[in-house]
Amino acid sequence: MLDWLLHHQALVLLIATFGGMLVLLVAETVWPRRPNAVFAPARLINNLALAGINFAAILALSGLIAGSAWMAPAMPSGGLLHGVHPLLSLAALLLALDGASYALHRLCHAVPQLWRVHAVHHLDIEVDATTSHRHHVLDAVLSAAVLAPVVAVLGPFPAVLFAAISLRLGFALVTHANLRLPERADRWLRRVVVTPDFHRLHHRSDARHTDSNFGAMFTLFDRLFGTASDAPYREHERCELGLQFLRRPADSRVDRLLLLPLRWPHPTRPDVAPHQPPVPRAAQGGAAHPQTTASP
């Protein structure tokens, strides 16, 4: 069974990605975090189209980008994780990939040229499972290219790498989902892992939140580097998502999103003020603690 999965991993990941989206879209109608979120078929089609384009691009480049964080081609296991127990190897690999993703994510927000590409992901005015793969194709390829050396140095066994990729894909879907978690469960889970509420703040149009909560799987790096933020639990239901510009439905057409880096309408980033610190975790009753990072 494992050999079959590794031999057909591209097909397995394709089915898991789009199948997972479908399952979560159904779940979002049963347990919505934002009950008033508007369902727009055109938005859904555009997001799925970008996901398909990105998957095809990474598949085409998988032979050139060895150890891509998306495709996991078979690799010789002679790196730092050679001989390490598979579970420990998986944990180390996930942590290393999340650290690299965190660093790249912050660069994409700080470097104007990278932001023009990454903004495609942030222009979605609602956030659900399909947003997880709403990326410019250059953004997807850059991520794969940055994570490939990490995998090459660590040299995990193919099965461990496949498991890591599957978990990262699953986390991306869930953390973008419009799913309601009980407040207590969310508070405890985010001590370690990224929850939908934790990541949704990153998609708010409020500049103080846009440049916070960069982690993909773990909240460790956000807490370590002071980029974790929080907001009152009920605020998620009514907060504005997306950016403060390009909010018309026509602005999220696939063709316009793909051309966005070349037709960027703003010489600077009017939506983000880098000098503003992230919003710390709110105290009970809505007042914020005077701290720079969120506390569980």
What does this structure look like?
Helices cover 50% and strands 0% of the residues. The chain is built from 12 helices and no strands. The relative contact order is 0.15. The radius of gyration is 19 Å and the shape is globular. With 296 residues, it is an all-alpha fold. Helix 2 packs parallel to helix 7 (158-176) and helix 4 (86-110) runs antiparallel to helix 6. It has one domain (2-262).
Q: Would you kindly provide a brief summary of this structure?
A:
With 296 residues, the chain is mainly α. The protein is 50% helix and 0% strand.
Q: What Rg do the Cα atoms give?
A: 19 Å
Biggest sheet overview: none
Number of domains: 1
Strand composition percent: under 5%
List the secondary-structure elements in sequence, H or E. HHHHHHHHHHHH
Q: What shape does the CA trace take?
A: globular
Discrete helix count: 12
Helix content: 40-55%
User: Distance N terminus to C terminus?
Assistant: 40 Å
GO cellular component, one term: membrane
Subcellular location: Membrane
InterPro entries: Fatty_acid_hydroxylase, Sterol_Desaturase_Related
Organism: Pseudazoarcus pumilus
